[in-house]
Every structure is written in structure tokens, then in C-alpha cells.
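WARN retry 2 of 3 for item q-0093 after timeout on previous attempt; input resubmitted unchanged.
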Amino acid sequence: MAAKTTTEDKAKSVKVQAESIKLELFGDLVKFSKKNAREILPLKKYDTLAMGLLNFPHDHRLLIYKFLCGLALSAHARRTNNQAQRRMLFDIKNSLFLAIANNLDNRRMLNFRFCVSKRFKVMEYCPECSKKNEDDKLGQKEKVFCQNCKIDRTFFNVLSMFHKFEQGGASLYLGKELMPQIIALKLLKHVDIEHLPEQISYSKLKFTPHNLISLDLNSVIDVSKKLLAIEAKEAAVRPPSYDTGPSKSGQRAAPPRGKRNY
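OK item q-0093 returned
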């Protein structure tokens, strides 16, 4: 006799579609829900994360929410062909990153690494390669280049901010050109970018820009802006943790020493 197929079994076998899950923020709590109530979606993964974060302190919970939104924004930015929208999404993501990094109460829970990529970008093709690419009508990924072309081998290098906690960890990237906007950022250890991927791991679950495309973009933008508003409001009444002004050496003061959670 064949076993009955339950709704839960069907949900496990269904692949989550892009922008099928809505993200909402109620006070300081996040909720995941189906955009279409009739769809069968495997929401257990997201519900597990939401329920697990209920036990986190307020500041720690909001910290993870910012990482989550940043990753979801990366997911959508990488898949859009609209340059203006891509720039807008990365601008919001960068604002989330800087809000986390420049919250000096967060710094005791964060670590930074400079991630070096093996990828490179051809900034300008030499006349010979340009002619060959044009004559052969080669696509962007098929174009040929040589040593005479202008190549930037540091183009894909990024700053990684990561946070480890008992149940897992979270990491997020920032373009190297924005590093000067981070308060008191010291010399960084260089690591291979493959060793620090952008993701949130919770228990055995992983949330990455690959699978977070399932979150509805408009709801992610809305929650991101709410988190930034909460951060701005709390920052206005937060006492300074240390002097952020220039020191005698001309450098910004370093964060106070304390136990780090990584």
C-alpha cells in the first residue's frame, strides 16, 4: 500500500521560487510568510531561523537581521540587468554594512578580513583584441585579451565582516573603495575569498545570496530601511563607546579592549 503524501512532504520536494517569500518586521521581530497563500513552500528553514533568533538579545537579533537583508539585497542585485536598480540595491546593502561596522557596541562581536579574489577584470582592451572581439562578435565572457590590455587584478577584492555566535555565524562583503568610511579599521589579515563566503549559517542551515533570491525584493528593501531607521534612532541616544576623533598620531582611536565573540 502506497504511503500517503502529506502537505509537509510536498513542501520539502518543492523548490522555492524567486520572490515567493515575504519578509516583514514587526517591532524588532522578523516574520517570513508566503506571498501567495495557495502555494506550497518549504518555509520551515526560514521559520527555524526566525524562531531561533527570538531568544537573542534585541541588539544581537537586529544585527543578524541586517546581515540577512544585506545578503538578500546582494542576491537580487547580482541578478538584475538594470544598472540603476543594481546600484540602488548595493547602496542599501552598503548602508547596512556601515551601520553594523560603525556601531561601536557591535565591534566587540565582529571581525574583519581583506578577501583576495583570483578573479580579475579587463578594464580596457588593446586595439588588436578590441578588433578581434568586434569582428568575431564575441560575448562578454568569450572576449579575448592579452598582456597589452589593461587588467585590474584587485577589482574583485573585498572587505569581509563576519560574526560568529554559538549556533553559527554571519558574513557580509563591502567594496574596498568604501573601507575608509569605517571607523578605526586597523590593518587587516589577507585571506582567500573562498574561505569566507557571504552567508548566514544557523545550526545546519545556510542562507546565501544563491537561495535568498526567494525573498520578495520590495519587502527586503522595506525591512532594510526600517532597520536603518531603528539604528539611526538608537544611535542618536547611544553614549559614545570611545573617542572617535583623531588622536595625536592623526589616526582615529581604537575600540576599547574587551572579550570578542568570534
